[in-house]
Specification:
By secondary structure, this protein is α+β, with helices and mostly antiparallel strands. The protein has two domains: 2-63, Arc Repressor Mutant, subunit A; 69-248, Beta-Lactamase (2-Layer Sandwich). Helices cover 45% and strands 19% of the residues. It contains nine helices and eight strands. The chain has helices at 2-12, 24-31, 35-47, 65-76, 79-94, 136-142, 147-155, 169-182, 227-248; strands at 51-53, 60-62, 97-104, 107-114, 129-131, 185-188, 195-203, 209-218. Strands 5-4-3-8-7-6 form a six-stranded antiparallel beta sheet. A hairpin with a 6-residue loop joins strand 1 (51-53) and strand 2 (60-62). Helix 2 crosses helix 3 (35-47) and helix 5 runs antiparallel to helix 9. The radius of gyration is 20 Å and the shape is globular. The two termini are 33 Å apart. Keywords: DNA-binding, Transcription, Transcription regulation.
Length: 249
């Protein structure tokens, strides 16, 4: 029974932004599981709305049930009522997009975005998963994780997202130490080319890091002399959101 549950949950992780649809046999081959097992899992998920079969290709993709559960999660966090207005105020003050990245296991996941009103802006999507070792929004979380968790993340490999992604374990650990010491992170082109990020960590009531708040946009709009002001605005937003998070987490 537990093995079946493991397979069923593992199957969902194969549906990503890069690979949104799967045929039964190709998914079974990827998972190294019998196609009969995969078909039964997909058929059950389809019955409850967690996957659906695309009419033309006959391949499976995630279903609308996840939208409902995602909405419940965001309601539980009161994102729209309490956190988003602070993010929107920060986006208006800096004229750049503001992102809330949540720690989920050993990855980050974007839970909310307050977009810049400028025509050229950093395009990202709610629900996107990110690697914790690249980019300000991620590294400011990783910097506050226990050493054994950092080691486990590094052990999975430091794959390059761009030419500026740090791939040296020693350099990354030094960078994380510096971020933790100063309390914020700044990066340019580490996760996405020509995009800057300024990020601060958010903590639960037990003192453990749980998320990050980030200002991001085209790098040409954030020269070094503008960083201190943007950071000041971001830290003020952090204090507002932090007070709320520590009441509920």
């Amino acid at each position: 029974m537990l093995k079946t549950l493991d397979n069923a949950l593992d199957l969902l992780t194969y549906f990503t932004r890069e690979k949104r649809q799967w045929g039964v046999r190709e998914l079974a081959k990827e998972m190294h599981v019998s196609h009969t097992v995969v078909y039964r899992i997909l058929a059950t998920y389809e019955r409850y709305g967690f996957v659906r079969q695309e009419a033309k290709t006959k391949k499976y993709e995630l279903g609308f049930a996840f939208l409902e559960y995602g909405s419940i999660l965001r309601d539980n966090l009161d994102m729209t009522q309490l956190i988003y207005p602070v993010m929107k105020k920060t986006a208006d003050a800096t004229r750049e997009s503001v992102f809330l990245t949540w720690l989920d296991g050993t990855e980050g996941i974007c839970l909310e975005i307050a977009e810049s009103q400028q025509a050229v802006k950093y395009a990202f999507s709610v629900g996107t998963r990110t690697l914790l070792y690249a980019g300000a929004s991620n590294k400011v979380i990783m910097a506050y994780l226990p050493p054994d968790v950092q080691t486990a993340i590094i052990g999975k490999g430091l794959l390059a997202k761009t030419a500026h992604t740090i791939q040296s374990e020693e350099r990354l650990l030094d960078d994380l130490s510096r971020i933790r010491e100063q309390g914020w992170a700044y990066s340019v082109s580490e996760y996405t080319d020509n995009v800057f990020g300024i990020a601060v960590p958010l903590f639960a009531s037990d003192g453990k890091v749980t998320a990050s708040l980030t200002i991001a946009g085209p790098d040409y709009r954030m020269p070094a002399e503008k960083v201190p002001h943007a950071l000041e605005v971001l830290q003020a937003a952090k204090e507002e959101i932090q007070t709320y998070l520590q009441r509920i987490l």
